[in-house]
Amino acid sequence: MPQTPHLEKHFTASATIRDIVIGMADGLTVPFALAAGLSGAIDSSRVVITAGLAEIAAGSIAMGLGGYLAARTDAEHYAAELAREKRETIEIPEEETREVVELFEQYGVPHESATEAAHALRQDRKRWVDFMMRFELGLEPPDPKRARVSALTIGLSYIAGGLVPLTPYFFTRTPATGLLVSIAVTLLALLVFGYVKGTFTVRRPLRSAWQTAVVGGLAAAAAFAIAKFIA
Amino acid sequence: MPQTPHLEKHFTASATIRDIVIGMADGLTVPFALAAGLSGAIDSSRVVITAGLAEIAAGSIAMGLGGYLAARTDAEHYAAELAREKRETIEIPEEETREVVELFEQYGVPHESATEAAHALRQDRKRWVDFMMRFELGLEPPDPKRARVSALTIGLSYIAGGLVPLTPYFFTRTPATGLLVSIAVTLLALLVFGYVKGTFTVRRPLRSAWQTAVVGGLAAAAAFAIAKFIA
User: Residue A141 and residue A79: Cα distance in Å, rounded?
Assistant: First the structure.
């Protein structure tokens, strides 16, 4: 993958963009597929719309509230580990120092400079604990406001995504016509969404565009086939 | 949160357990809520079952394939960053060494031992690059087989979860009776699932149990209210 190494920053998608992607990816896909499936099996736009909106309500709450609880769990996990590391630097400082020395030695730092670095770390308990959290456990301090913002972002993105494939059924006479318009509109939306998402992650937007559309198409095809089979 | 610090390992849920939790949490919740919503609005078990199975197909593919692509994106992101770090240790080794020194100095390691440690790291390029990946960028090497296993685990967990709330509608005469049995069975399943999930994360299984049940209940109530309102 060609890159321009020095102009470019090491990229990590912001948490908000990640939440929008999470919510919208599923919001565009699942209600689309459900509506497509039902419109092949049941000849009533009202049923398709009812099921679609019920799904959007259920999915946005499940994902949003799920995101909220997951973020809170992360924050609590961090707090618990932080308290434990703090306690350990007080109760068993020698053992904790040895862990730092070993961590450095794993990467070829000779025992003496590893020991020196570890003893320098011990001078400031807060920094020592921060170091253990980040480098021994690989945990980053969570943003306390994340949980609520994350929940809302994921939930609203799911709703926004889900209304795209559903809207055509409001304005067309039969589910069959609705389905055709919905397929066109949603595939376009999936391509655009996948393209934008791709610029944020591995910088291969075109591949991301068609992959996202394929996932949506496959989900819709599977839902359609199963509904048709039952009906 | 009281803990027994020394018997207990720092816990991180295995990737497989995380995937099962991701798939099953949504699988138990969304098809449950959708079926509940429809059964309040449309008096046909066949419609409820058709919509439910279509949703399970759509949701499992969206989540499973979504998980597959996400895991692959992670792996590619890691590979790209690894290649870049490797190139930088060859092209601008002094700058990279300075980054390591600064990283240590942030945590109070004095300049001299930080420089010594950084120069020790430089002796072995592989370890040096590994060190940068983990400690500068905070990236762990991904398991190359993860993507496919992750997709299957999430998708199958979604299906397994989704069949729980839907099964009662197969065996009851009216959607209303199906709904009552489905609520009982699914709330029980959510409580058990939440409890087990809770033992893996913050070790507060009871709170996790009722929270998981509340998310499912709220999603179902919202879907029910919206469907009822439209119909």
Answer: 9
